Amino acid sequence: MSTAPVPAVGATSIAHWRARVQAYVGLTKPRIIELLLVTTVPAMVLADRGFPSPWLVLAVLAGGTMAAGGANTINCVLDRDIDEMMRRTHRRPLPAGSVTPRAALRFGIALEVLAFAWLWASVNLLAATLAVGATAFYVFVYTMWLKRTTTQNIVIGGAAGAVPVLVGWAAVTGRIGLPAWVMFAIVFMWTPPHFWALAMKYRDDYAAAGVPMLPVVAGPKAAARQILAYSVVLVGVTLTLCPAAKMGPVYLVAAVVLGARFLRCAHQLSRDNSSRAALRLFSFSITYLGLLFMAIAVDAVIQRGL
After folding, report:
1. Does the structure show a pLDDT above 90 at 80?
2. Residue 10's pLDDT band (boundaries 50, 70, 90)?
3. What one-character DSSP code corresponds to residue 177?
4. Is residue 226 part of a domain?
5. Residue 21, domain member (yes or no)
6. Which of 81-95, 109-123, 284-298 shows the lowest per-residue confidence on average (mean pLDDT)?
């Protein structure tokens, strides 16, 4: 009579801790953090008009990762009821029971404390204050107030996601200059088309969870019109960086070409309100932001060499 092999105690322990680590990492929403950091480094390069100290870049990225991870973790705690009802999010650590709400909240607060202390010690007080201030805005203004009460939730709440460019600029210069505010405006105006396109794709999910996202309340057609309007303003704002930061032809060409593609996707969505068209715009919006800010960095480095 054969018996099934019994797993080694050590192997079971390792698997348990690996699952725990994965759950806590999942709370921080790494993909969102990556998107935020994509805008931080180019802002630092533009502020320096070249390559900042590698140590400074790593210090800002580490602090920014902790601050954003803490904000996302606290958001998961507050939105766990919504996440449980949505197909897109019901497997996140809290709905899945991988982490308790109390443990997650402690983890999120600890990350914020560490982020502030780290950025203050290794960068400067302004960068630390901006990073943690963005978390406070995201948690108290967006998550706890706007998200469940108004269709303009992501418009106002999106300001939190635009703060990393200010952090990057402040880390290099110790202040916030006009180019930093223009980059802030770029990310701020980019957020509604980006997120509303995703909300159109998962409209039924948001409706089931009772979240008043624009596509749920106003309908896909009205949402698509708003997306197109914001996209037009977005492209216009990207062009204002040219005089504000004295950008060169590399950035100008990138802003025009990428902007034209963005407007084309938004226009197609206004004519075809399908989930497929919405997902197409959402996917390109991520590429758009990354390439646009890459062009900012490349342009700044090239101009310094001239």
Report:
1. yes
2. low
3. -
4. yes
5. no
6. 81-95
